[in-house]
Amino acid sequence: MQQYTNFPDVWGAVLILFLQFTLQIILLVVFSGLEIDLQAGDPFWEGVLTLIPTVIIVSALLRYKRLDIQDFFHMSVVSIKSTLLVLGLPVALVALGSVILFNDLINLFLLYEPLTTEEIDAFERFTNSGFNSFMTIVLIAPVCEEMLFRGIFLRSFLYEYKPIEAIFLSSILFAFTHFSIYQLIPLFLLGMFWGWLYYRTRSLWTAILGHVLYNGFALMYDVLIDANAGDLPEDTIIFQSIFVHLFAFMLVGFGLLLLYRLLKLR
């Protein structure tokens, strides 16, 4: 039976994130000692540095809280298959529309504070390394982050705070731990959406699905943008037309409306 249901609270979560960061530093020191070439933005090593500390921390917390792994991922009486089949389409619509809107929101920040050449190179390496990029961006990062921020933090916060406060706090932590001023607002809003999904469905799988779809669409969107950029300089910022933005808003709006109606029936 689960114990320590409200652990961690928000300050406990901050300490856990500090521990995760410390484990990543230790791994970096070990890899450097082994003379491994760690290039900034290398998706393989980014994935390793995400996966190992998260698995260690989540496994320890599940054991400490005596939380069953099946209950950790899915508490709802509705089956996982039914949940994902019914909600998959509207979640995908929200994810696709959000990618378009948030990409241009980030571009607005980049107009005033452009990335350095080193940052551009690291980003290109992270997103354009084929299979390694796909594994880290679309699978490892979403699963690991949802296990920690929604599966551990939000689950515990819901015992300690009101639902809106719990979702808000977990989303703030999620946004700030990415250490990116450009992505702060998009990550916070995405965290709110995925947190709401988790709260309403009582299933971590819906949050993971939303995160996987968003990252997958974002990766494909970046590839399409690069393909259409032609011979433009790497630091060129490309905005979409107002019609594309309207279409994206329609996708998000319709997806949210459909989700609201479907979840209202549960």
TrEMBL record:
GO terms for biological process: CAAX-box protein maturation; proteolysis. GO terms for molecular function: endopeptidase activity. It holds the Pfam family Rce1-like. It comes from the Bacteria. The chain crosses the membrane at residues 12-32, 44-62, 83-102, 166-197, 204-225, 237-260. Signal peptide: none annotated. Coiled coil: none annotated. Keywords: Hydrolase, Membrane, Protease, Transmembrane, Transmembrane helix. Residues 134-216 form the CAAX prenyl protease 2/Lysostaphin resistance protein A-like domain. InterPro entries: CAAX_protease, Rce1/LyrA-like_dom. This is CAAX amino terminal protease family. It comes from Beggiatoa alba B18LD.
